Amino acid sequence: MSGTFVGMPAFPTAARAALGDTQLRRNLAHATQTIRDKRALVVAEVEDWEDLRLAGAGVKEAALRDLATHLETLEASLTRAGATVHWARDAAEACAIVASITHAHGADEVAKVKSMATAEIGLNEALEAEGIAAWETDLAELIVQLGDDLPSHILVPAIHRNRAEIREIFQRRMGDVGKAAPADLSDEPAVLAGAAREHLREKFLRAKVAVSGANFAVADTGTLVVVESEGNGRMCLTLPEVLVSVVGIEKVVATWADLDPMLRLLPRSSTGERMNPYTSTWSGVSPGDGPQEVHVVLLDNGRTRALADDVGRQALRCIRCSACLNVCPVYERVGGHAYGSVYPGPIGAILNPLLNGVSDEQTASLPYASSLCGACFEVCPVRIDIPSVLVDQRAAVVDSHRNDRVPSAEALAMKATAWAFSDSRRLAWAERASGIAGRVITRFSRTTLPGGRAASGRLPGPAAGWTGARDLPAPPAESFREWWDRTDGGQR
Amino acid sequence: MRVALQVTCVNDAMFPDTGKAVVRLLRHLGVDVDFPSAQTCCGQPMVNTGYLDEAVPVVRTFVRAFAGYDAVVTPSGSCAGSARHQHSIVAERSGDPALVAAVAETGPRTYELSEFLVDVLGVTDVGAYFPHRVTYHPTCHSLRMLGVGDRPQRLLEQVRGIELVDLPMAEECCGFGGTFALKNADTSIAMGADKARHVRDTGAEVLVAGDNSCLMHIGGMLSRQRAGVRVVHLAEILASTEES
Ligand code: SF4
Question: Domain extents for chain B?
Answer without folding.
Answer: 3-120, 133-238
